[in-house]
Description:
The protein has 417 residues and is of the alpha/beta class. It folds into two domains: 2-41 and 200-261 and 360-415, FAD/NAD(P)-binding domain, CATH 3.50.50; 48-193 and 267-358, D-Amino Acid Oxidase, subunit A, domain 2 (D-Amino Acid Oxidase, Chain A, domain 2). It has ten helices and 18 strands. The strands form three sheets. Strands 3, 4, 5, 6, 12, 13, 14, 15 and 16 form a nine-stranded mixed beta sheet that branches. Helix 1 runs parallel beside helix 10 (383-399). The protein is globular and about 65 Å long. The protein binds flavin-adenine dinucleotide. Flavin-adenine dinucleotide (FAD) is lined by residues 6-12, 29-32, 36-40, 43-46, 48, 53, 221-222, 249-251, 272, 274, 309, 353-355, 377, 379, 382-385.
Amino acid sequence: MKIAIVGAGVVGITTAHELAEAGHAVTVFEKNGAASESSSFANGGIHCNSFTLPLSAATFAGSKLRRFWQHTRQMSHSHWAAPSNFRWLWARSSAAEAERVSAIQTYGQQLARLGMEVTDQLISHHQWEVEQSEGQLILLSNEAELNRHAARLQFLKDAEQSFRLLDREELEAHEPALHGADSVFKAIYLPGDRVMNCRQFSILVKQAAQRNGVDFQFDTEITGLHAQGKPQIRLKSGDTESFDHVVICTESLPSEDVLKTGLQATTAQIDSYALSVAIREPLNAPRSALQDCKAGITIARIGKRLRVCGGAELNKSGADEHDKRVVNKLFRTLDQYFPGAANYPAGTQIWRGSRTFTLDGLPLVGSAGLPGVWLNLAHGANGWTLATASARLLSEQITGHSTSLPSEALSPQRFIR
Length: 417
Ligand SMILES: Cc1cc2nc3c(=O)[nH]c(=O)nc-3n(C[C@H](O)[C@H](O)[C@H](O)COP(=O)(O)OP(=O)(O)OC[C@H]3O[C@@H](n4cnc5c(N)ncnc54)[C@H](O)[C@@H]3O)c2cc1C
């Protein structure tokens, strides 16, 4: 079959690769001049098998009002009270009922595990060398934080995923470069999580897909999609082209004038910052990834650089100015935990990236509700972790094979009443 993919981030590239492997003729349309220049550009790099990243689904418990307050407090720019933001946060809190949260966490972990398996198969098949390190630490500052993680730890136990609770001494032995461990009450060590360079991986997959016949058309923006009969895409140049299937991998939903899905109100965009700095002294740097649970900040070692991510600006895309308070906090957190690790003069990059979140935190993967039109987007906090899994599930659906995991939980139709 002749298939178009819109978007060449890690999700579009891995989807193209899967579909080409299944024997289809695939063309990828990307508005930027190169691959993985948008959300996949400088993300936190954490391949999070445990599904515990900040802003992940299934984070909060308690009454609806309590959950609403917790969700709201995560947002660093307090214009949450704008009516559409307020409505979205309230709807997200409503969707996070205990029973549903448990199902999402369990499914999210299965999906993450599938993602890691598929990623590992690709790496070992092609014998790629991808920058990576093993394990993630979650630093907890007090007993209340540990109690808030009780449900998560139970999920990990139920899923037979290993973790260890470290006291300060064990933490120091485990991450010797860590300073300020006296402000840490305990840490959760997750050996199944890891750090891996997303951009490097996606470029390797792109090259493999090209060798497999996938045609990448860069600087080519899609401005319209008609789905009567065979789906037809319209390019910015005015040209149109028909395909048997079109898969939208644009991270956020296309605007309603490009594709009417009826899903706009169920998603929101949250921007976060990523600081990338060269490592000055490897012995002063973390061995792998850690997360300051209270601050919602992750620090990861990616090859010869450190990546520090944090902040959460709800529906602020398009704002030019960086929030200096958030950016300064990233610098301060890195220097607090790993003084002397960064070589700022040798190269420091500050980047703001956007993530699209659904009400339940799981992505939209499946039929868009129009013949031949499919979505694979809105991966929220875990897009890098889940990319190869959602690509596999979507390719299986298009090809008509049984899916590696049940796919109903990801269907975009779950939000359409
Ligand atoms: C600060 C930050 C930290 C993160 N940390 C982690 C982490 O530690 N672990 C994790 O698992 N995930 C993390 N993520 C999430 C992860 O990076 C994203 O979910 C993932 O990269 C999304 O990939 P994508 O391919 O869907 O989107 P993108 O990489 O944004 O790709 C979408 C592409 O579609 C193109 N496009 C859009 N519209 C059109 C159009 N009309 N025509 C043609 N092309 C179009 C865009 O130009 C873009 O290249 C983080 C994200 C951010 C922002």
